[in-house]
Design brief:
It is a single chain. By secondary structure, the protein is an alpha+beta fold. It is 30% helix and 29% strand. It has helices spanning 44-55, 57-62, 75-85, 98-103, 144-154; strands at 14-17, 22-24, 32-37, 65-71, 90-93, 106-111, 114-119, 123-126, 132-136.
Length: 155
């Protein structure tokens, strides 16, 4: 696994969102967008991470940042997750993990002694030119939003 780096061009994609609508990265041309990859909707850690973003969405919007969460969950599960947690940003379904692979966040993981392949929790800020502006890979789920907002305050 080797995640994309600052300066790399973000891979183009079209995926289904929580409402079953097609969303493409090109829909965000000339805008900055945060793409955050997370392992599984409706799990405790992913819920904490998503709610941190939700609760600070006004600040992200003020800074001109759209937020997209990507997991391998089906759109129906994303819809339940968004509804249950009142999420105010787009969730995309990457069921075959092709986009996670393109961003370099799909790889070997281990949990309680089991080794498996899955999404690594990494976020990418993409600039208005479609290039990776910053990679967020050193955070706790509880301070994910703070790390990103601190970066935005200084850039």
């Amino acid at each position: 696994m080797s995640p994309l780096k600052v300066g790399d061009t973000a891979p183009q994609f079209t995926l289904l969102d929580q409402d079953g609508e097609e969303i493409s990265l090109s829909d965000y041309n000339n805008q900055r967008v945060l793409i955050y990859f997370y392992p599984k909707a409706m799990t405790p850690g992913c819920t904490v991470q998503a709610c941190g973003l939700r609760d600070n969405m006004n600040i992200f919007k003020q800074k001109g940042i759209d937020v997209i969460g990507i997991s391998t969950d089906k759109p129906e599960k994303l819809s339940r997750f968004a509804e249950k947690e009142v999420l105010n940003f787009t969730l995309l379904s990457d069921e075959n993990h092709k986009i996670a692979e393109a961003f370099g966040v799909w790889g070997e993981k281990s949990f309680m002694g089991k080794v498996y392949n899955g999404i690594h929790r990494i976020s990418f800020l993409i600039n208005s030119d479609g290039k990776i502006e910053h990679v967020f890979d050193d955070f706790k789920i509880s301070n994910h939003h703070e790390i990103i907002l601190n970066y935005l305050d200084n850039h």
